[in-house]
Amino acid sequence: MRHNMTAIVEREGDGYVAVCPEVDVASQGRSVSEARDNLAEAVTLFFASASPDEIDARLRGEIYVTQIDVVIG
Q1: Within a 13 Å sphere around the CA of 40, how many CA atoms are in the beta-carbon half?
Q2: Cα–Cα distance between 22 and 49 in angstroms, integer?
Q3: Measured between alpha carbons, how far is residue 43 from residues 3, 5, 21, 34, 73 in Å?
Q4: What DSSP string runs through the chain?
């Protein structure tokens, strides 16, 4: 069964870090696409190996990623 999950990717040093906030799993890569692919693999492995209790404890409901307008300075 396939599910859409959120991937937040940001630059960190010479690479990129990707986080899936629904299950608090992270991975990294040398490019955005590599970090995203590695995250997909890590999340898949999490669901394959975690107990149902751990999945229930970590799985969050709806996640919204948006932007806000702020004044700086």
Answers
A1: 8
A2: 16
A3: 11, 9, 11, 14, 39
A4: -------EEEEETTEEEEEETTTTEEEEESSHHHHHHHHHHHHHHHHHHS-HHHHHHH--S------------
- Give me the amino acid identity at 52: P
**46 touches 38 (CB < 8 A):** no
Q: What is the pLDDT of residue 38?
A: 98
Per-residue pLDDT of the chain (73 residues; tens, 9 = 90+): 788 899 999 999 999 999 999 999 999 999 999 999 999 999 999 999 999 999 999 998 888 888 999 999 8
Label residues 3-40 b or e (16+ Cβ within 10 Å = b). Answer: eebebebeeeeeebbbbbebbebebbbeeeebbbebbe
